[in-house]
Amino acid sequence: MNLEADIVIVGGGMAGLVAGTIASEGGLSSIVLRKGESATSMSSGAIDVVGYLPDGTIPFESPKEGLVALASLYPFHPYSILGFGEGKPAFAEKVITGVEAAVGWLKDKLKDSVAKIVGGLDSNILSLSILGTTKPTCLIQETMVSDGFANEFDSTLLFLGVKGYPDFFASAAAKSFLEQSEIEQEGPRKVAHSTVRISPFGNTCNISASEIARHLDHDDALGELLPQIKKTVDTLGATHVALPPILGIKNARGNRQRIEEEVGAIVFELLAFPPSIPGLRLQRALEETYRKSGGQLLLGHEALSAYKEKNRYVSVQAGAPRRSIRISTKAVVSATGKFIGGGLRGAEDGLTETVFNLMTVTGNLIQADNIRPYDYTSPFAVDTGGHSIFSCGLTVDPQFRPVMPDGQPDADNLFAAGSTLAGYDYLVEKSGLGVALVSGFYAGKNAADAAKEVD
Ligand SMILES: Cc1cc2nc3c(=O)[nH]c(=O)nc-3n(C[C@H](O)[C@H](O)[C@H](O)COP(=O)(O)OP(=O)(O)OC[C@H]3O[C@@H](n4cnc5c(N)ncnc54)[C@H](O)[C@@H]3O)c2cc1C
Predict the structure, then answer these.
(1) Amino acid 252: pLDDT
(2) Is residue 381 part of a domain?
(3) What is the pTM of this model?
(4) Pocket lining: 33 vs ligand 1, CB cutoff 6 Å
């Protein structure tokens, strides 16, 4: 089967969907291919821009502060690339303006969606996690806004778990939160914990977050929960209620508002590990935004190879279980993710890029085609210094075109975005969805310009 699109985007996580939406908004036809689940849908759903220096040492008060540091110290970081101009090194101001434009655009796109986001580059938000710990992040979903319990003299924070839901222990979260608050000598006046009962689809034990969230998407499901929350809040005098992120996939914002109205306290969702409902909400909201812009999303379709004529890609070959398609195109964006998405593959004899056979490099820009991935991981599974394998990937020019060993772009019309890029470790510096957003935004714009050149 043959299809045509001005731009083909390989990969449908944050980076690919942003690039696709930008291309569609530029008046071009686009197709996004997504073969499977994305890291985006497994994330906490809070968008980190930059929380720490790449070596994990210095926490930033604000993403702006972080971007200035990156532009001066790490000129090849994917954000710093925005500051390059006519061969000159990164200018922090240009980087900040560039990131601000992408963040402002996303906030506007998601404002009426299930994943409405709040926050900005002027300060990092210290968001609470299901462990009772905090993490600096830039943009959080509206359902995660906790409205300053730490600063209110008379506040009581209640961690509320669900019986039979094994992924969140309200008592452990309360304990570690309290220990941390004592060290930092700030926090609410009182911390409490409790549990409520809920039986999604009749199930009362080993309940998953997605079962609860799907259950709470039904109109009448809150009825079982509201009297229990109200009773607990009244008994403990809670002013703030921290729930695991289970408030719904489609209706979390409405559910939150209804609970707040009924119980008279501020209710918010904590950050969680996968499978995380806010991550799923973000993925869905991005997909909806892309479709609304006029783009075509082909789920379950894997790009297998691409064909070049002279220095331009002219088609992408893709396969799905029951069909094989060839898409003729004028420009291509590769947003295939890292190891989870499948854009990079590690084997004993090196790291390979899986669709275009592009050069891979380490975080220090050394060619990675022959490295042993084993040597780039720490023996400690959880290492504060991270695993340097995560900063490996593709190296790009200032237009986000992947560069080959001769220092030249692989093609005039191939762009790369998201976690497939080298030069940053999102686990350490807390920048995952932010880099995906920003690089997707500019790779999409540059791909649109390249496609227009063909006409
Ligand atoms: C558990 C976890 C928690 C995280 N938490 C956070 C967080 O709280 N905040 C934050 O900012 N970041 C977080 N991150 C990082 C963040 O999720 C990623 O950096 C970001 O989602 C990367 O987006 P992406 O679009 O580049 O890749 P992905 O979201 O991985 O998307 C890549 C897509 O490409 C598709 N694909 C790959 N190859 C092909 C092909 N050949 N054909 C078609 N499709 C293909 C994949 O199926 C996938 O859908 C987390 C990551 C993980 C794993």
Answers:
(1) 96
(2) yes
(3) 0.95
(4) yes
Q: Which of 21, 354, 426 to mutate to test the pocket of ligand 1 (most atoms within 8 A of CB)?
A: 426
- Rounded to whole angstroms, how far apart are CA atoms 183 and 150? 14
- The verdict on residue 306 lying in a domain is yes
Identify whether residues 430 and 369 lie together within a single domain. yes
CA 128 to ligand 1 centroid distance, Å: 22
Record the tokens describing residue 234, joined without a space.
């009244």
Q: Is 140 in the pocket of ligand 1 (CB under 6 A)?
A: no
Q: Whose CA is nearest to atom 2 of ligand 1?
A: 43
| pLDDT value at residue 375 | 83
Report the alpha-carbon distance of residue 173 to residue 179 in Å, rounded. Answer: 10
92-110 helix and 63-73 helix, angle to the nearest 10 degrees: 140
> How many angstroms does the Cα of residue 342 sit away from the middle of ligand 1?
9
Atom 53 of ligand 1, nearest CA residue: 39
Spans of the chain, pLDDT less than 50: none
Residue 108 shares a structural domain with residue 134: no
The CATH number covering residue 140 comes to: 3.40.50.2300
In the reported structure, the alpha carbon of residue 250 is separated from the centroid of ligand 1 by a whole-number distance in angstroms of 21
Angle formed at CA 351 by CA 347 and CA 356, multiple of 5 degrees: 120
Residue 64 maps to which CATH number?
Answer: 3.50.50.60
Residues 199 and 256 in one domain: yes
Number of domains in the chain: 2
How would you write 138-168 as a 3-class SS string? CEEEHHHCCCCCCCCCCCEEEEEEECCCCCC
Distance (angstroms) between ligand 1 centre and the Cα of 181 equals 33
Q: Which domain holds residue 96?
A: 2-112+294-454
**In-domain check, residue 450:** yes
Average pLDDT over the chain reads 92
Same domain, residue pair 310 and 441? yes
Q: How far is the CA of 139 from the centre of ligand 1 (A)?
A: 17
